[in-house]
């Protein structure tokens, strides 16, 4: 199936800018031309590609096609540079998946001196990155998968260390006789979202059992931390983000000398190995400085 490059680029622009109008302005064509290109591309593929919402979002098929378009455009630019052709100084766009705890802590030290790249960072749990790499929606990902996704290189980064914490008041109320499976079954958990299972993994690790407590979902790290300090529930907090509140006494450990360790890895597409070489090196060096090594 041969697809029109301009229609693919239009799809990518719509999904990146979030609207047909914004895409038209950026591409310097009419909005009706954008609509027509998307319509013809959908007819060619035989599937809906764009959910016409505010902002516009891609269907699964649309996201895969847009990722393909972005990758082809970037690789053509890289090839042109390698062949000595003038392609301007525009940075190469790259889609990267990072877990929120890394992004809020050590990964931020990786941002410097990569002006040749134009990053689009997606926040995803590291257990849910395989399909993103396989489909080409991202070209690099922080993941828990040690086995490389087909076509990818893998580099060990270290362990993310999580601590079971809560406010002193919450502990006094819900665990007056200590932490136990029966007490955990009724004490509310504060989790990031439905993909956040660190709390259940810690319970299984410590007690060899599974309990289903009530839970709050707060998909914001600053707000989640405030909720823990305020006594809304207990949760598994990344050690670097919990350190200050533990020192101040705003949070306490549910159990002393107890943590949950999640080994993480950096996987990146082999096609992008040379382009991302410096960035990959920077990530690995930064991780070694900040994360315990297994």
From TrEMBL:
Matching InterPro entries: ArgP (IPR017685), LTTR (IPR050176), LysR_HTH_N (IPR000847), LysR_subst-bd (IPR005119), WH-like_DNA-bd_sf (IPR036388), WH_DNA-bd_sf (IPR036390)
SUPFAM superfamilies: Periplasmic binding protein-like II, Winged helix' DNA-binding domain
Record's keyword annotation contains DNA-binding: yes
Keywords carried by this UniProt record: DNA-binding, Transcription, Transcription regulation
Occurrences of domain HTH lysR-type (ranges): 3-59
Protein name: ArgP/LysG family DNA-binding transcriptional regulator
Pfam family name, one: HTH_1
Gene3D superfamilies from the UniProt entry: 3.40.190.290, Winged helix-like DNA-binding domain superfamily/Winged helix DNA-binding domain
Organism encoding this protein: Cognatishimia activa
Family under the similarity heading: Belongs to the LysR transcriptional regulatory family.
GO MF annotations, alphabetized: DNA binding; DNA-binding transcription factor activity
